[in-house]
Amino acid sequence: MSDDEPETKHSDEPVAGGARPRVVCAELRREPSRALVEIVLERDGVEYRSEISAVGGEELLLRLAARETVRMLGEIVGNPDHFKLIGIKNIHAFDAQVVLVCVQTADAPDRKLVGCVPGPDGLIRGVVQAVLNATNRIVESYS
Questions:
Q1: CATH superfamily of domain region 22-139
Q2: 18-25 long-range contacts, Cβ below 8 Å, gap at least 24?
Q3: Could you report the per-residue pLDDT of 45-66, keeping only the tens digit for each?
């Protein structure tokens, strides 16, 4: 690059505070007596891992994955109670599955953060990504 060319910033570079977390892994493994959900998030080169297991249907697993992602985001920002999961919906709209989540923050409980992922490849990954979509601007403001 020459001295007279402007430096280009890419949207995936960190902004004030830090980079947005990204999904490294979000998968469901079924075992004979239970289901195991593994979630791995990465932010600024640090990985955050969690595994949860449960016995129950799809709706329970999706809720647990969303709740665990919210907990992990609290760990990332240094305040385990900063985010609260309000709800999750997995709906069929326009010939596709759509995952919606609603999250609130401790510092603005009247403000609802909504994330949506249309047509996710895997429902667990879709839930995790929807939580990140709802909270990414808040999380990136924390260093």
A1: Alpha-isopropylmalate synthase LeuA, regulatory domain (3.30.160.270)
A2: 18/43, 18/44, 18/139, 18/140, 18/142, 18/143, 19/43, 19/44, 19/140, 20/132, 20/136, 20/139, 20/140, 21/48, 21/73, 21/76, 21/132, 21/136, 21/139, 22/132, 23/125, 23/128, 23/129, 23/132
A3: 999 999 999 898 888 999 999 9
